[in-house]
Amino acid sequence: MGEKGQYIPPLVGWMYDLVLWTFSVLIDLFFREVHPRGSWKIPRRGPIILVAAPHANQFVDSLVLMRVIRSEAQRRISWLIADKSFKRKFIGFLARSVGTLPVARAMDNLKPGTGTIYLPDPINQPTLLRGVGTNFEGKDFEKDGTIALPTINGTSHSTAIAEIKGPEELVLKKAFKHRDALAQLTGRQDIDRDGNFTGDASEQDPDFKGTKFKVAPHVDQTAVYEAVFKRLGTGGCVGIFPEGGSHDRTTLLPLKAGVALMALGTLAENPGCGLKIVPCGMNYFHAHKFRSRAVIEFGTPIDIPSELVEQFKQGERRESVGALLEIIYGSLVSVTVTSPDYETLMVIQAARRLYNTKGKNLPLPMVVELNRRLVKGYAHFKDDPRIVELRKSIVGYNKQLRLLGIRDHQVAYAKFSILQVVATLIYRLGKLALLTIGTLPGLLLFTPVFIVTKYLSAKKSKEALAASTVKLQGRDVMATWKLLIALAFAPALYAFYTASLAYWTYWNRVNGMVPDWVPLWSVVIIGMVLFPTITFAALRIGEVGMDIIKSLRPLVLSLNPSSANTLVKLRERRAALAQQVTDAINTMGPELFPDFDAARVVTDPFREASNTDTKAKHELPEIRRTSVSDHGEKMPSSEPLPRNESFHNLANIGFFSTRPPSRDRSRSRSASARPGSRHGLKPLSPLTPKDPLEDVSSRIRDAMRERGERRRRRSEDGSWDMASSGPGTPSSTEESRKDL
Fold first, then answer.
1. Whole-angstrom Cα distance, residue 71 to residue 42?
2. What total of structural domains would you count in the chain?
3. Quick check: 323 pLDDT over 90?
4. pLDDT tens for residues 527-578?
5. Which tens digits make up the pLDDT trace of 72-115?
6. Where is the composition biased (Basic and acidic residues) (predicted)?
7. pLDDT surpassing 60 at residue 71
């Protein structure tokens, strides 16, 4: 692993596209919607390193990004993959087919060590480590190897070995700083959050005998780095998940140094290659669930500062790598939604729904942006008494929703009259009955796949959780295993159905329903097409049916006299809570965001509601546009979004645009000839006496270049929208979108 002669598979274009096309079908089936945002920022040419986080869906993350990058930027990615996964039979075959780069990780080679370890003098000699019953001179211990502690509070702390002094004594490269790690190695509890001891040695547990540990040998990554330098040197695209492995946390893990070493090493060897780092945020909604959604957001490409490259060349690697990692981490935070814990994330999402009191179906990019702003605001004001009290109220509201078994948007059913509730319930039950008839055949055919994938994915999740030091529930591997199991089991199941149909036809012509002149080979072809078609139709029909099933419970509760009053009170509580959330945002928002009112994503619903004269004008959230005046100046306007405005047209709005706003076609054609335009030819502009023809040619070339760039951007604007409107990416229903 990691040796000089390690096999590095080449990237073969046609094979890459074949594998991607095959798995794109599964991606379309598994996800209800995948929306790329900011894809215009991806350089179409030149070397780039794509850094993606959080890594919440193991192999599925790679497939989603491969598809987005291929369709949006027409580029292929050489992914870095764990050597442990690369050596698996099926995964390894696919990895070699798409030209991945295997990377051996110390965490994959950890083995339990014999004896226990402790810090004899954590204050004066924090890097000195001693053992009891250990053999640090054994074959598993070597310089630059890894020492890892048992997992505590969901994290296993580790560090590298600097020097081995004997069988029971060694020196660490970097001292343990975290409070949990120090408590494990000293048995003391007088440690603050910064890892400082506040008492003396008397605070140590008298029964402390050290802690167990794991050890891994040093991994040489020379071959991997050389392969990365080679592919980047030829203008390729290398993809990496800098957190090191997949996880299901709500925050980003500390970034590994590998991505910085690759970037700085490439520029050190080839300073003029123009390498850029493109941050990518993987924003999932229920990542492990079938028919979930995702927003893939790309940030501004990072130009590596030349001073860091010079610092790297001069041997100051630790400083230059650390500085670049901070830049990358900041860029990733700007395109992801992170929170300290799961409960906080639920509070943030509830606050976002309460702030959008009109209940409009916000586009996914808007949902992600609102979540991101609220997380930033919460992190800044979390100790404020008003926010502390508001959090308690939202947590209580969420708890009451769970007890009633309803969703936030379903609280509005409390305002329905009895006749409305009864009519709606009868209509939906009738619709559900019809949908059930259409779904039942496909459901019966595909039930074995559902059962097997659910069972085996849960089993693999437990195995991954037991072997990991960073996972919380192991959900990050569930989607991957569901897809892999379905990919193998579903074709086998359909082959069995087809063979059974052919045998039935051969035996008695399906009870005489199939004429004798129909050949058996045609029955096989019909079965191969019929059974998958029935299943896919059931999937699409059942998706609508599940949304209806979710909406039935609040309707039934509204008919129950005992629970109907509870719903009414809950609706009143929600209205009061929405007012509190809005007041808090309007009060504290300007303190954190100087352009709060100018760049407001959603207008103040209560301020808008109070203005009855303009109620019709503001039926949709007010969104500021950027218009272009006749003189080419950008003028802000506050026009509401028209009802007939499609999502594609939202690209003209600053918040939604995935590329800088441009004039429409009619204006762009005349812009070059309009006085005052940037590159236009003025009818009466004087020509320079030196070389008038060259001046005219230069202006014409500039104008044509600008026009071509605008046309290219407009064509890219519609590429994903057109792809998403096809059968592979079904549109979401109103009920399901409100669940976000």
1. 12
2. 4
3. yes
4. 899 888 888 888 778 778 887 887 888 788 777 776 667 778 888 888 889 8
5. 899 999 988 888 888 888 888 888 888 888 888 777 788 889 99
6. 614-636, 691-717
7. yes
Structural domain that includes position 163: 108-216
Q: Considering only 82-91, 277-286, 556-565, 713-722, which range has the smallest mean pLDDT? A: 713-722
In a domain, 489, yes or no: yes
- Quick check: bond before 54 cis, omega within 30? yes
pLDDT of res. 204? 65
What does the angle CA 242 – CA 244 – CA 246 come to, to the nearest 5 degrees?
Answer: 105
Helical spans, DSSP H, in 382-477: 385-404, 418-467
Whether 242 and 258 have beta carbons less than 8 Å apart is answered as yes
Provide the pairing of β-strand 276-285 with 48-53: parallel
Q: Are residues 306 and 185 located together in one domain of the fold?
A: no
> Helix crossing, 418-467 with 520-559: angle to 10°?
120
On whether both 535 and 424 belong to a single domain, the answer is: yes
Q: To the nearest whole percent, how much of the chain has pLDDT over 90?
A: 14
- The answer to whether the pTM exceeds 0.85 is no
Residue-wise pLDDT for 375-432, tens only, equals 888 888 888 888 999 999 998 888 888 877 777 877 876 667 788 888 888 988 998 8
Rounded to 5 degrees, φ, ψ at 276 are -130, 150
Residues 424 and 552 in one domain: yes
CB 602 within 8 A of CB 440: no
Residue pair 700/681 in contact by the 8 Å Cβ criterion = yes
446 touches 541 (CB < 8 A): no
More confident residue, 357 or 69: 69
Residue 577 falls within a domain, yes or no?
no
- 100 and 208 fall within a common domain: no
Alpha-carbon span 351 to 474, nearest angstrom: 27
* Overall size of the chain counted in residues: 740
Domain final residue pick, 216, 232, 263: 216
Domain assignment present for residue 133? The answer is yes
Rounded distance between C-alpha atoms, residue 171 and residue 167, angstroms: 12
Confidence at residue 711, expressed as pLDDT on a 0 to 100 scale: 59
Residue-level pLDDT at 659: 41
Shared-domain flag, residues 422 and 505: yes
Residue pointed to by tokens 């405005």: 645
* CA gap 733, 576 in Å, rounded: 28
**Of the candidates 164, 188, 216, which is a domain's last residue?**
216
CA atoms within a 13 Å half-sphere pointing along the CA-CB vector of 198: 8
pLDDT tens for residues 157-196? 888 999 999 999 999 998 898 888 888 888 888 888 778 8
In the chain, the amino acid numbered 582 is T
> Mean pLDDT in the chain?
76
Compute the distance between CA of residue 80 and CA of residue 104 in angstroms, rounded to an integer. 10
**Are both 113 and 98 inside the same structural domain?**
no
| Phi and psi angles of residue 612, each rounded to the nearest 5 degrees, phi first | -70, -25
Backbone angles phi, psi at 579, to 5 degrees: -65, -40
Domain CATH code at residue 162: 2.40.30
Domain membership of residue 484 (yes or no) is yes
Q: DSSP 3-state assignment of 117?
A: strand
Q: 642 burial class (0-12, 13-18, 19+ CB within 10 angstroms)?
A: exposed
Q: How far apart are CA 268 and CA 616, in angstroms?
A: 61
Residues 540 and 433 in one domain: yes
Q: What is the largest CA-CA distance in the chain?
A: 96
Q: Which two tokens stand for residue 92?
A: 């390894």
Q: Which pLDDT score is estimated for 3?
A: 43
Helices marked H in 158-221: 179-186
Q: Give residues with Cβ within 8 angstroms of 666, minimum separation 6.
A: none
The pLDDT score that the predictor gives to residue 678 is 40
For residues 242 and 295, membership in a common domain is answered with yes
Burial class (CB in 10 A: 0-12, 13-18, 19+), 465: middle
Q: What is the 8-class DSSP label of residue 304? A: P
